Amino acid sequence: MSAQAALKRGDVAGIVLAAGGSSRMGQGRNKLLECFGERPLVAVAVDALLAAGVRPVVVVTGFEAERVRAALAGRACRFVHHAGWAAGMGESIACGMRVLQEEACAPEAVLLSVGDLPGLRADHVEAILASARSAQGEIEPGCIAVPSFAGRRGHPVLFGAAHFAALAGLRGDEGARGVLAANAQAVRRVEASDDAILRDVDTPEELAAAQTRMDARAGTGEGEET
């Protein structure tokens, strides 16, 4: 499917947040561009969403936008640049949502993911989608599906269409926590198979630990799925 293909009714779209400045990685380092296995870190989340059939995947860029785009070259994702990326995650989410609102046919739901989840796999995403769908294969507009492990919430988070306006109106650095809090009765937790949905990366030490975990998985023959 082309990165520019139009949405079809029933599609679930994705937004990958890739705008931050990686301030905790140290001077001159952008965590999203760090090599993780044979891919840049930002490609892990994008590949997992695409492999699970999420379309389109919108990547919100900010800091070092051209480098992020180059790192994802050849993947069926769209890009939107958020010039005000330093204002925080909430406004990056809103920027991505505005792209989806311009579509002739709105998606049934949207999956929001941070761009620094080195262990995210397609099966994590598929479990969230399966939990959100009814027996008829539909996603209720008010649905919110959150992956969790050991009682902690992770990413990506699925929001049904009833929440699109609230997401498009986000400001500042709070992200979607306010939307979750305001709709607590609609939130369904999806128990993840492991803690990869929790383990984002902010520091060189966290990235090295993630690499060690990936090597250990490979050593047991499990591999590292997208």
Question: Could you explain the architecture of this structure?
Answer:
The chain has one domain (12-219): Spore Coat Polysaccharide Biosynthesis Protein SpsA, Chain A (Alpha-Beta Complex). It is built from seven helices and ten strands. The longest helix has 16 residues, at 204-219. A hairpin with a 2-residue loop joins strand 7 and strand 8 (152-153). The protein is globular and about 45 Å long. Helix 1 packs across helix 4. The protein has helices at residues 41-51, 65-71, 89-101, 122-132, 164-168, 177-182, 204-219, and strands at residues 12-18, 35-36, 39-40, 57-61, 77-81, 109-114, 144-149, 152-153, 157-160, 187-191. The strands form two sheets. Strands 1, 4, 5, 6, 7, 8, 9 and 10 form an eight-stranded mixed β-sheet that branches. The chain has a two-stranded antiparallel ribbon with strand order 2-3. 31% of the residues lie in helices and 19% in strands. It has 226 residues and is an alpha/beta fold. The mean pLDDT is 89.
